[in-house]
């Protein structure tokens, strides 16, 4: 395996950090520092930048590098940083990974290249070629709702045999798929299986999952860490109470608005209402208007977050 400070299997709560923006192609650096300190104060085990929650596909490559640079400086090796390198260009993925490695990242994360629909043999070859050229360990990212491609369980099993591929984040929301992966990978003890959808975090942990990449940990990081700890201690009653709080976030903050962007707008608006960072969004999206902002504030008050 390439040099890294990341333990394997990597376990715990990893925050898929939003990208604080103050304008078009402009990073909110002051907000970024407040956000990182807020997240770290919640006790999370890792930080994932330039993922879906970070609006990575909508950001310029210049801004992505700026975010890596500033995030690394602010975190200062306190927790591992995972960097998303998903791109339609193989060369750009390698370039971003090389830049991330030079700034102290611990691992990189890649979903399948979108736009051209690759078959599973092509996808496996892509992953093999990518892993060989990367300077850091690789997490696969199963995000079929956005990429229109799935890492089939058998493809993941074969990929897990490669030295430099150390885990998968599954955001499919399909627990049958998750269980299939667990069965196929039961002899790969160092391979991490992480779940994306927060509604499935408790279930996945009790059934042997390694952790969660939870967007709500931008807003309320300690809640997700508390659930993880309760699940690891097999305390069903306490974990259930934390799960209920997470579901309340899902049915309130994430449900404001009318489009699939509501989750991201809700997280960014919440952080703005909490005084942490700006809620400017990259095109094609716009931040919530005042009526939605008022609703978000109400929900945050109910959750005792403001």
Give the structural class. alpha/beta
Instruction: State the fourth-level CATH superfamily.
Output: Aldolase class I
CATH fold assignment: TIM Barrel
What is the CATH top level name? Alpha Beta
Portion in helices: 40-55%
Q: DSSP helix count?
A: 12
Shape: globular
Question: Main sheet, how many strands, which sense, barrel?
Answer: 8 strands, parallel, barrel
Q: Which strand order spans the largest sheet, edge to edge or round the barrel?
A: 1-4-5-6-7-8-9-10
Low-confidence stretches: none
Describe the structure.
44% of the residues lie in helices and 13% in strands. The protein is α/β, with parallel strands linked by helices and 306 residues long. The protein has a single domain (12-235), classed as Aldolase class I (TIM Barrel). Helix 7 (175-184) links the parallel strand 8 (165-170) and strand 9.
Features:
306 residues; alpha/beta; TIM Barrel; 8-stranded parallel barrel; two-stranded antiparallel sheet; 12 helices; 10 strands; 44% helix
In short:
The protein has 306 residues and is of the alpha/beta class.
């Amino acid at each position: 395996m390439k040099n890294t400070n990341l333990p394997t299997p990597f376990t715990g709560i990893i925050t898929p950090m939003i990208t604080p923006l103050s304008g078009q192609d402009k990073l909110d650096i002051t907000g970024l520092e407040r956000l990182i300190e807020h997240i770290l104060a919640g006790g999370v085990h890792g930080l994932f930048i330039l993922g879906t929650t970070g609006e990575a596909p909508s950001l310029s490559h210049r801004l992505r590098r700026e975010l890596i640079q500033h995030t690394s400086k602010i975190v200062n090796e306190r927790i591992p940083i995972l960097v998303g390198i998903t791109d339609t260009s193989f060369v750009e993925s390698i370039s971003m990974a090389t830049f991330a490695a030079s700034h102290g990242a611990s691992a990189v994360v890649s979903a399948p290249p979108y736009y051209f629909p690759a078959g599973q043999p092509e996808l496996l070859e892509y992953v093999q070629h990518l892993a060989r050229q990367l300077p850091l360990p690789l997490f696969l990212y199963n995000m079929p709702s956005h990429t229109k491609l799935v890492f089939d369980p058998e493809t993941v099993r074969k990929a897990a045999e490669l030295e430099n591929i150390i885990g998968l984040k599954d955001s499919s929301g399909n627990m049958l798929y998750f269980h299939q992966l667990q069965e196929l990978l039961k002899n790969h003890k160092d391979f991490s299986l992480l779940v994306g959808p927060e509604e499935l975090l408790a279930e996945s942990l009790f059934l042997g999952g390694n952790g969660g990449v939870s967007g709500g940990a931008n807003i309320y990081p300690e809640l997700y860490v508390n659930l993880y700890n309760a699940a690891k201690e097999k305390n069903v009653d306490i974990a259930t109470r934390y799960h209920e709080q997470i579901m309340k976030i899902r049915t309130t903050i994430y449900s404001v608005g009318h489009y699939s962007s509501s989750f991201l707008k809700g997280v960014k608006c919440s952080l703005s209402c909490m005084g942490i960072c700006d809620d400017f969004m990259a095109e094609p999206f716009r931040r919530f208007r005042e009526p939605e902002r008022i609703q978000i504030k109400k929900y945050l008050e109910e959750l005792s977050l403001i």
